[in-house]
Design goal:
Blueprint (H helix, E strand, L loop, with lengths): L10 E3 L3 H4 L8 E3 L7 E3 L5 E3 L4 H4 L5
Antiparallel strand pairs: 1-2, 3-4
Length: about 60
């Protein structure tokens, strides 16, 4: 289950990711405990990502 940063220390917030990727309505997280790449959206449409290849994978969103 993916959680917001406020509810879990398992995620690191990439503060500048939304601006750099020009999708400012999304927030990006790296899930520490699981190396698998997963894309999940919560009820607010926020994107959670569990892999350090975040910027490579999200280059398509630009």
């Amino acid at each position: 289950m993916f959680k917001t940063l406020e509810n879990s220390q398992e995620y690191t917030h990439w503060k500048d990711a939304s601006q750099e990727l020009k999708v400012g309505y999304m927030w990006f997280y790296r899930r520490i405990k699981d190396g698998r790449l997963e894309h999940k959206y919560d009820h607010r449409g926020q994107l959670y990502i569990s892999n350090q290849s975040l910027f490579d994978e999200l280059s398509d969103y630009q």
